[in-house]
């Protein structure tokens, strides 16, 4: 009965209902949009890390403190790795193979057009641990590691050649001629927020060929694939020990995929804290809006309360009716915010590189918060309404 009366009262005073629901609507929009965008970015990042391949570890030049989850600011400087370190790492039990990666930099020119993907010079065994889907052509092999050939990512391909198949064409990479032998297919990378850093949006060139053209080129990464029976985390000590035979412990780190995600999620956690702060402010404003409107409603409806009690309504009946009104206002605000957020998320996913991910848990969280805020904000007005003296209320009217 109290719920039915609450609905009727809200419908009869719909302008006040809409006004009081606006605050919760704004708060729910903030929650739904920020959380869904954060989840989408997190999924995107995990996808980029998963692209490294199964059971892959990364040796980087520079010390990464996993306890504080912070990068060494010197990691962008000189690399201490040498070619013979790859052979040294391959002797560690549990290691299947080791690929050498160098970030060659520069760009690609085809006629008058230019593209600037991530330029990676690598050994051919990188393609054994990191599966590459090809749209046309092929990957370079061991026999071609000293040849000036290239495999283009889809983004660079479209920037340089459009829909034309460039296999067999010659391009200039940092002033040197390279023949394109393969083109990767990666629609996911093109629509990804991090597509410009994706391992798909690259120009792969043979490490030996680039070393011949640039003798001073440094080695930036060793990509290490563990055997299926080996657990990557357990290999870290052995790999670090083997590199430590030549290098100081401060000059390198060996990271698992979980370590990489941990470093990224630390930044995401900081952003999450900011999100909590922003949504808390929005929720406070929404709660104050409901509280103010409901207090005004109690003052304006003294006669109604007096008549209800004169007809036999108990304090509990009055309390429940006003509390239900507050809760319904909160749910109306959340529902409106959900509809608006769905439209915005669709627009972001369709027209931008941001791919929000709205999960049932996120929706449930928003409705739970709306329900809780509505109940909390309506508690005091409901108690005031329940305690009204019917005689005094009717006499004041």
Overall mean pLDDT: 80
Shape by Cα distribution: elongated
Structural class by sheet pairing and helices = alpha+beta
Beta-strand residue fraction: 15-25%
* Tally of DSSP helical segments: 13
Report, as a whole number of angstroms, the end-to-end distance.
Answer: 25 Å
Can you put this structure into words, describing what you see?
- α2 (14-50) runs antiparallel to α9 and α9 (257-300) runs parallel beside α12 (360-386).
- It is elongated and about 95 Å long.
- The chain is 54% helix and 16% strand.
- The chain folds into two domains: 2-48 and 264-396, no CATH class; 81-246, no CATH class.
- The chain has 13 helices and twelve strands.
- The longest helix has 44 residues, at 257-300.
- The model has no long low-confidence stretch (mean pLDDT 80).
- By secondary structure, it is of the alpha+beta class.
- Strands 1, 2, 3, 4, 5, 6, 7, 8, 9, 10, 11 and 12 form a twelve-stranded mixed β-sheet that branches.
Describe the secondary structure blueprint for this structure.
Layout: H1 2-12, H2 14-50, E1 56-61, H3 83-90, E2 95-103, E3 108-110, E4 113-115, E5 118-122, H4 126-129, E6 134-137, E7 149-152, H5 154-161, E8 170-173, E9 176-184, H6 187-190, E10 202-206, H7 207-213, E11 221-226, H8 232-243, E12 252-255, H9 257-300, H10 302-310, H11 315-351, H12 360-386, H13 390-396
Helix pairs in contact: 1-11, 2-9, 2-11, 2-12, 9-11, 9-12, 10-13, 11-12
Which properties best describe this structure?
12-stranded mixed β-sheet, single chain, alpha+beta, 397 residues
